[in-house]
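Q: My labmate handed me this sequence with no annotations at all. I'd like to see what the chain might look like in three dimensions before we decide whether it's worth expressing. Could you predict it?
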Amino acid sequence: MPRRRFPVLIKLVFAAGVLAGAAYFPRPLWLPMAGYGLIHSDAPDRADIAVVLAGDPQGHRIEKAAQLAKAGYVPQVLVSGPPGVYGINESDLAVQFIEHKGYPAQWFIPFPDPSHSTKEESGYILRELQRRNVHRFLLITSDYHSARARRIFLATERKMGYAPPFRTVAAPDEFFHADSWWRNREAQKTVFIEWWKTLANALGR
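A: Here is what I predict for the chain of 205 residues:
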C-alpha cells in the first residue's frame, strides 16, 4: 500500500509553526536588539549650547539638559517646542517645569517652532543655531529617539551646508528599557512607532 502524503497546506502550517517557535523561544536574545537599535548615546563634552527636542511631556529631556548645564558642559539650553495646549507653547511649559525643579531660568531659552516632525524640527533648530553662530552643540532627546534624531540632524546638516559637530546625549524614559521593552505595553508602542518612523525616514518621508 503506498504511503500517504501530507497535503502541502499541512506542511506549510507545520513549517510556519517551527519558524514561529524558533522566533519565540530565543526572544531574550533577539528582542533586545530591536530596543538597542533605537539608541545612540554619546558621552557629553563641552559645547556652546544644548538643544532639547520636543515631545517629552514627562520632562526627562530637559532634566538631562539641566544636569549637563549644572555640570558645566554648556552655558545655556535651547528648548524646542511646537504649539502646546490652551495657547501655551510646549517650550514654555518645559521651562516652567524645570524652574520648579530649582534650576535657574536664565539657563533656558524657549524656542517655539511650528514643526510636526523631527525632520522639520531639525531645520528650524539648525537655522537658529547658525544665527547664533554655534560651533558645537549637544543634542538631548529620549534614548528610544536618539539614533533616529541623530541621523535626521546629520542629514539636515548636509543639506544645509552648515554642519557643526554635535554629540547626542540620551535621556532615560521610565517606560522604555531596551533589554525588556516587550514586557511593557507603552514600550511596545514606542518601539513599533520608532521603527516605523525609521523606515519612513529611510524612504525619504
